[in-house]
Amino acid sequence: MLNQYSQFNPSLIFMEVTNACEYQCLHCRAESQKTPSPEDLSTQELKNTIDQIITLWGKEAEIIFTGGNPLMREDLKELIEYVAGRGLRFGISPAASEALTPEFLSFLREKECSMVSLSLDGGTPATHDWLRNREGSFADTLALLSAVRSFGLNVQINTTVFMRNVHELPDIAKISVDYGVEAWEIFFLINTGRASGVKNISSEEYMDINHWLRTIRDKGLNVRTVEGPIFRVMNGIAKDRPDIVNGDIFHELMGNSKSLLDSIKFNNKEAGQGSFGGTLFISHNGDVYPSGLFKLNMGNLRSNFLAEIIMNNMKYLGKNSRSDLKGKCGSCKFKYACGGSRARALLKFGDPMQFDSMCLYS
Ligand code: SF4
Question: How far apart are CA 170 and CA 264, in angstroms?
Fold first, then answer.
């Protein structure tokens, strides 16, 4: 392991092994297509990348196979065997498709997969199926949640928050509890890829939703956030500025989750992360980004070693980069614990160091 990389130590490295997927979801970051791209990294290129990850960070990092639908990759088992054989932990984020067979789940258990993440973007079939662009996918997802659990695998629900599903968040929280998920990960929509046209929530809703999520997190449901780093400091925000986190949506969500909060004894696990939380995203064609939604292209693995890419972009990676934040994030007392969404700043201002335009705190 090389010491100069110690200030950036990603805990999760997402490998988008393909952008092919049977689904064509309306909010797809990957802008998935039905068939594999000729630009997909080859089996050998992916194995070389895994070797480089181990050289840089040892066996600390966890690889998450994502897509598109990683199950559409014919060599997926070979790649998983390679990662597991090198002693790295791995998880997988598949689409809820027929390819997630009992035989494959058994293989994942045998290779000690740490987490299977399934997306659930609505508390009702109407909303989820609409966003996933496929009738029946809500029911398919619930069936797969049960199947994954029945194989003794850890399961996580991923939910992207957008205008249409805000009122269904308590329903998804209940499903998370009912199915005994290890984590409920909330993605705040970044209007990138196919999500460019999806209606996003307002700043007021963003603050209220994070306040509600923090409240249920403190009750013990293992909530994590992506591009919602204010979640980490929400208790401090609520103390300083109760006027900006107790709006109508907060009260509605609290009211609609009251029986859940009263009746369930949750597990109490770790809090969430944002785009500076130590992630790396390797896209299907070898482009490297800080995270899947933080569209800062740092270089390509076909023309640079991973070490070069990291070194050339250290100013954007890791907590040290927060000393250079601009605007109200730069002067905020929470800039190291929160830091704002860099993905949102890049999209809004073309500058990843600018302030987070969703935040109402000052
Ligand atoms: S101003 Fe920036 S760092 Fe401070 S709470 Fe808001 S988003 Fe976080």
Answer: 13
Ligand 1 shell residues, CB under 6 Å: 230, 233, 328-329, 332, 334-335, 338-340, 355-356, 359, 361
> Which atom of ligand 1 sits closest to the CA of residue 358?
7
Residue with tokens 């460019």: 196
Query: Separation of 88 CA from ligand 1 center, angstroms?
Result: 34
Residue from 203, 230, 319 whose mutation best tests the ligand 1 pocket (most atoms within 8 A of CB): 230
CA of 358 to the centre of ligand 1 (A): 9
Bridge partners of 65, per DSSP, are 15, 92
Who contacts 85 (Cβ-Cβ below 8 Å, separation ≥6)?
none
Helix, strand, coil share (%) of the chain residues, nearest 5 = 45, 15, 45
How remote is the CA of residue 332 from the centroid of ligand 1, in Å?
A: 6
Alpha-carbon gap, residue 211 to 231, rounded angstroms:
7
Nearest CA to ligand 1 atom 1: 329
pTM score, whole prediction: 0.92
Q: How many Å lie between the centroid of ligand 1 and the Cα of residue 356? A: 7
Among 1.10.3720.10, 3.30.10.20, 3.20.20.70, 3.40.50.920, name the CATH number for the domain at 8-263: 3.20.20.70
Most ligand 1 atoms within 8 A of CB, residue of 353, 356, 358 to mutate: 356
pLDDT in tens, the chain (362 residues): 445 556 788 989 999 999 888 877 777 766 667 788 899 999 999 999 999 999 999 988 899 999 889 999 999 999 999 999 999 999 999 998 889 999 999 999 999 999 999 999 999 999 998 888 788 999 999 999 999 999 999 999 999 998 889 999 999 999 999 999 999 999 999 988 777 778 899 999 999 999 999 999 988 889 999 999 999 999 999 999 999 999 999 999 999 999 888 876 655 454 444 444 589 999 999 999 999 999 999 999 999 999 999 999 988 887 668 889 999 999 999 999 999 999 999 999 999 999 999 999 99
Selection from 90, 86, 71, 91 nearest residue 20 by Cα: 71
How many Å apart are CA 85 and CA 78, to the nearest integer?
10
